[in-house]
């Protein structure tokens, strides 16, 4: 899923400015491929100061989660003989495979596929000294079998939220609190929605008291009718530019991802955002280890560093996201505290978008296409 196209954070430094190592002849000690803007440069600098041995720490930002998943796939595919023959003479050839990283950012949505395709390996629990700080909510995501194996370490998370224009709603005399408000007549042709079947069909399911991960869609008799009614409210479907129509006034309300919305409500006072009280979708960014990499103490030192409560809170605040650490669940600065799921009841009702069987996924996609054509 692409949820990063409109990040306006000015607090996150470009990691290219803080990649450490005093020369190209130094031994590479830690190679991390991470999602761009998901780790502040200040955090990398602090970590470098804790590393006592010499050597190079390489943190490479990648634009999209999908690109990181493809990297994991590429590292497990043997190069063809033709690639070996030609690229060996071309040191800067774009087709040349990059070295396998020690750790990679992966979205929770991609985790099941990475495990089933044998792209990642479980982490050594005994080496994760700070894993106990993780909130219990994440256990269903990072553990995928009965043996207690940990497949990833979450370092930040967010959710799908509603952002709205305060000035427009002040004239209406009410403010949105839940998904059901999207169907109110005053909002006809005034809404921007994500162009994403799981998110849109999912919010309708949530309105109906169902799960985002419902598989028996054909047994919900009112689902198609509700989707068609919601479509009458929507002016734009877009997963990258859904906020622009709101900013210029073409729409009054939008549904989107919190890390993209928080910078907007921080910059423009006329906008506010809420987490729907019936629950919402949760996303998380995790560290995973590619298959075949022999991670030493330094990789686990980085994982534990990110799990320290004060570091985790800094990551959350500077990247406009939330911390997975227990103590930080109720800690947020003033500008974003309304988007932290401090309400235990709402948090309990919220869900990760879990992988669905291909046939069920096709049902979601078909329903979504039919909805937009109605």
UniProtKB/TrEMBL annotation:
The reply to whether Transmembrane figures as a keyword in the UniProt entry is: no
Q: What is its main location?
A: periplasm
Q: Which InterPro entries match?
A: SBP (IPR006059), Sperm_putr-bd (IPR001188)
Q: Which domain of life is it from?
A: Bacteria
Q: Which residues form a coiled coil?
A: 213-240
Where located?
Periplasm
- Keywords for this protein: Coiled coil, Periplasm, Signal, Transport
Q: Please name one Pfam family that this protein belongs to.
A: SBP_bac_8
- Can the keyword Nucleotide-binding be found in this entry's annotation? no
State what protein this is by name.
Answer: Extracellular solute-binding protein
**Species per Swiss-Prot/TrEMBL record:** Aphanizomenon flos-aquae FACHB-1249
């Amino acid at each position: 899923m692409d949820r990063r196209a409109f990040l306006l954070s000015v607090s996150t430094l470009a990691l290219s400015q803080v990649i450490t190592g005093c020369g190209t002849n130094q031994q590479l000690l830690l190679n991390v491929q991470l999602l761009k803007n998901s780790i502040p440069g200040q955090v990398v600098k602090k970590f470098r100061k804790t590393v006592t041995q010499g050597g190079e720490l390489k943190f490479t930002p990648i634009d999209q989660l999908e690109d990181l998943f493809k990297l994991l796939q590429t590292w497990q595919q043997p190069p063809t003989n033709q690639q070996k023959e030609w690229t060996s003479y071309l040191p800067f050839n774009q087709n040349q495979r990059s070295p396998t990283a020690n750790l990679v950012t992966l979205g929770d949505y991609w985790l099941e596929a990475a495990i089933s395709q044998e792209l990642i390996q479980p982490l050594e629990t005994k080496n994760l000294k700070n894993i106990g700080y993780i909130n219990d909510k994440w256990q269903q995501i990072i553990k995928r079998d009965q043996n207690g194996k940990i497949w990833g370490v979450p370092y930040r998370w967010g959710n799908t939220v509603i952002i709205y224009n305060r000035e427009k709603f002040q004239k209406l005399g009410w403010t949105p609190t839940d998904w059901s408000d999207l169907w109110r007549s005053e909002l006809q042709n005034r809404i921007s929605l994500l162009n994403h079947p799981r998110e849109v069909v999912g919010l309708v399911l949530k309105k109906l008291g169902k799960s985002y991960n419902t598989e028996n869609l054909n047994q919900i008799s009112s689902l198609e009718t509700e989707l068609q009614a919601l479509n009458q409210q929507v002016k734009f479907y877009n997963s990258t530019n859904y906020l622009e129509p709101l900013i210029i006034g073409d729409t009054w309300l939008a549904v989107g991802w919190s890390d993209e919305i928080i910078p907007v409500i921080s910059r423009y006072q006329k906008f506010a955002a809420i987490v729907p009280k019936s629950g919402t979708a949760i996303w998380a960014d995790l560290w995973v280890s590619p298959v075949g990499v022999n991670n030493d103490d330094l990789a686990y030192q980085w994982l534990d560093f990110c799990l320290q409560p004060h570091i985790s809170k800094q990551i959350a605040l500077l990247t406009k996201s939330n911390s997975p650490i227990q103590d930080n669940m109720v800690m947020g600065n003033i500008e974003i505290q309304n988007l932290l799921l401090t309400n235990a009841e709402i948090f309990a009702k919220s869900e990760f978008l879990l992988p669905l069987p291909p046939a069920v996924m096709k049902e979601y996609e078909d329903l979504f296409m039919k909805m937009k054509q109605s």
